[in-house]
């Protein structure tokens, strides 16, 4: 291909807004957006989230992984399912200052990758950092 078009799906836009609401503490709005995605996926009414029914989500408070509220955890999981295999997961995890748990069978090293590790960053394209004067990411 001569170009690399960027595609943004409706589901991603709704979940971006849900994530923003979750970070602002607007629980009902965040869950309403998640429920829009779940309704479109054909999940019945008893599978919808509300501030009174989080379906067992309690948030993450793990010294190895990080911390987040129950609503944020719901949004992150919904993003993981809706955007599966589209390359969003790593960005979602590190953007929210969570560590990537790579302790599962496969070719990758068995470890938890902290969001602060410099090797997770991509190089900034030369035409951007040379013109703007910002520093290149470490290691490039």
Please give the alpha-carbon distance between the first and last residues: 27 Å
Q: Give the assembly state of these chains.
A: single chain
Strand content: 5-15%
Helix content: 40-55%
Give the number of domains: 2
The SSE string, one letter per element, is HHEEHHEEH
Low-confidence stretches: none
What's the CATH topology label of the largest domain? Serine Threonine Protein Phosphatase 5, Tetratricopeptide repeat
Helix and strand content put the structural class at mainly alpha
Largest sheet features:
2 strands, antiparallel
Q: What overall form do the CA principal axes indicate? A: globular
The CATH first-level class of the largest domain comes to Mainly Alpha
User: What do the pLDDT scores average to?
Assistant: 91
Radius of gyration: 18 Å
Q: Kindly report the spatial arrangement of strands forming the biggest sheet.
A: 1-2
Keywords:
140 residues, mainly alpha, Serine Threonine Protein Phosphatase 5, Tetratricopeptide repeat, two-stranded antiparallel ribbon, 7% strand, globular
């Amino acid at each position: 291909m001569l170009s690399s078009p960027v595609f943004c799906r409706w589901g991603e836009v709704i979940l971006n807004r849900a994530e923003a609401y979750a970070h602002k503490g607007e629980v009902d709005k965040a869950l309403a957006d998640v429920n829009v995605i779940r309704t479109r996926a054909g999940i019945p009414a008893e599978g919808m989230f509300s501030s009174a029914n989080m379906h067992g989500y309690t948030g993450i408070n793990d010294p190895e992984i990080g911390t987040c509220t129950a609503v944020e955890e719901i949004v992150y999981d919904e993003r993981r399912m809706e955007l599966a295999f589209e390359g969003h997961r790593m960005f979602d995890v590190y953007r929210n200052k969570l560590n990537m748990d790579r302790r599962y069978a496969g070719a990758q090293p068995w470890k938890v990758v902290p969001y602060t590790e410099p090797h997770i960053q991509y190089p900034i394209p030369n035409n951007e950092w040379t013109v703007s004067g910002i520093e290149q990411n470490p290691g490039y």
